[in-house]
Amino acid sequence: MAHINLLPWREAARKEQQKQYLTLITAVALFSFILVFAISSIYSARLDSQHQRNQYLQAEITKLNRQITEIRDLNETKTSLQQRMALIAQLQGSRNLGTQIMDEIVRVVPSGVYLVSLEKKGSSLLINGRSESNNRLANMIRQVEDSELLSEPLLEFIETGRSNQLLSDFRMHMQVKGFDMMQGETP
């Protein structure tokens, strides 16, 4: 048999396999790089899109916070105006209260009862006076109880007059009806 040298063929086949192997590894590496780059680009795009949405939401939240602040300011202004209007209405309603009280006092004080002083503190009236008899004071208390403006008569004391034996000194407390409502208080 003849002697055939197969070494160069094997070496050439080995070099060809190495070349194919390196080409395949390069192709896989290039494909992997392109795949990683594409995935990275997709996620970067999604992340940028989410950042834009977050910025838009932050801008809208800032707008809404400004509007909420404006609404609170308007509500405070509204409350202030309502309080002023209530005060004006109260003043308007109680404008003639002094005159009405005096008219009512004249109506409820019977003849024979003389007023020395009249003092008003809040919704309370304090009357100091003199009376010819206790019956006349009793009539005055009944008329105060029947009054539309005055209520809760309370006779503090009756004492026979020191200087004048005919007249008795007295002190009486009473309330003005509706005054608490005009002041915004509960009765």
Automatic annotation (TrEMBL):
UniProt keyword rRNA-binding, yes or no: no
Xref: Pfam families: PilN (PF05137)
Transmembrane domains' residue ranges: 21-43
Keywords (A to Z) from UniProt: Coiled coil, Membrane, Transmembrane, Transmembrane helix
Keyword flag Transmembrane helix: yes
Entry coiled-coil feature ranges: 47-84
PANTHER family membership: DNA UTILIZATION PROTEIN HOFN, TYPE IV PILUS INNER MEMBRANE COMPONENT PILN
Name of this chain's protein: PilN domain-containing protein
